[in-house]
Predict the structure of carotenoid 9,10-dioxygenase.
Amino acid sequence: MFMRKESAIGSAKRGSPSSRQLPDIRLAAFLVRVDVELRDPARRKKNKYLADNFAPVSAETTHQDLKVVGKLPKALDGVYARTGPNPVLPISGDYHWFDGDGMVHACRIKDGKVAYSNRLVQTNRLKRERKLGFSVYQRFGDMRGFWGVFHAGLGALRMKLGVTPQNEGVGTANTALVYHANKLLALHEGDLPYAMRVLCDGIVDTLGRITFGGKVKHPFTAHPKVDPITGELFFIGYQMDKKPPCVWYSGLDKDGQLQFDVKVDLKEGVMMHDMAITQDYAILLDVPLCFRPEVMVTHNRLPFVYDKSRPARFGFLPKRPKSGKEVVWLELPAVMIFHVANAWQESKDVVKLFACCFEDFDLDIGEEEMPDSAQPRMREMTFNLATGEATSRQLADVICDFPRVPEHLTGLRTRYAYAASMDTTKLAGNFEGIVKFDMSATNGGTVAGRLSHGTNRWGGEAVFVSASAAEDDGYLMTYVHDENRNKSELVVYDARTMSAVPVARVELPVRVPYGFHGAHITEAQLQQQVTAL
Ligand SMILES: [Fe+2]
């Protein structure tokens, strides 16, 4: 059933940028050398996002017929895949967790057997850097201090000179995976999607970057929403550097064709990582993590400031608008939101939104211990579009993020959500378990279950896979890393019981670095995939 194929990343066949000749390598090298030599030396230090289980792996491998402890249920037949950062070229400067090249770690499950493989997403960025032999693209982690401004200037120059061509995109596809229109999409909010194809043995190959025939001229969020009823996909893309700053809201039909693309102007550029849909609306999250590049110089910080004096604004658009001017904004006191659990309509005018919210925030994550208020907790927000009233309540005092609900309930009333719970005595790589929320509970009882991965065992987002029509009859899948043994596992839990004893676990022969978001691709979806763009 499974094939075997492996290669060290350093010896992988080098790709070639498709759309234009490689620019003069000496020019690229000169610009990078200037960049590195003028860097703030104080920041050249051991980076926690390159250490321990954040460290990249050095080979793409495939391993079959892995030992299963317990039993893999039939409902899991298909592929569990998760992407995350895995920097390939040596890091010459600073580095943030957001910066690494996307690598997909996939477990192919069929008839109780499992195979594991990992593959890099072959982005234009990665192909170009491999051809050059050194890292040349602007990194998020470099955007600090006076030299952050200088790096940004050099980055713009590199783009203008064609060293990093703008039309090829700059994304790493390291953030999330979504299946739509017979394609698995690897996503990064600074670029367009990369289409992937999952082979019969579970290897995930890159088909290429989706450009929508040049019609989409803005980035594509890592968290689009697939309408479970119509098969449409709705997405945003924010542009902080435009005047005025803006966010685009766009829709694809079930076949992946662009249906609309409207622009909503913003008062200030903000990081807008997620969005939500309901039956009739799309919800934009204008939360106050504001783009203020001056703080790179004045405070030696990344150029994003969490401004508590500003409200969180929630923009409601008709789901298929004719213009961005149709947006209606409602406000709540400031919160930062990276991830939405779900949203739905209680009635025509009343909308519920559940999301993990930070009451305080600092994007220089892990640089210093954050106060308790700067940790995310699940909140229920209720909006009345007829009266303009908005209210919010915290569900439970549980620090958590990366919430998931069953895919077939996106935008619809949902009772349960599953989030990765955190032990904040550890600064990074600290997802200690999974918490199950009962979003219907109004007076206590909102925590319907909670499990821990075990002592010094750390997980991440848990993807829910349904076993039947009953909402919580299903399984939670995640990679867990045992830091005592330096071993990674695929772990499957029963979502209904939330027992900490896994239904099945599979020790993987290689380490799976901590990463971001994943997806379960069903057996039927595997069969329906397109074979080329
Ligand atoms: Fe995310």
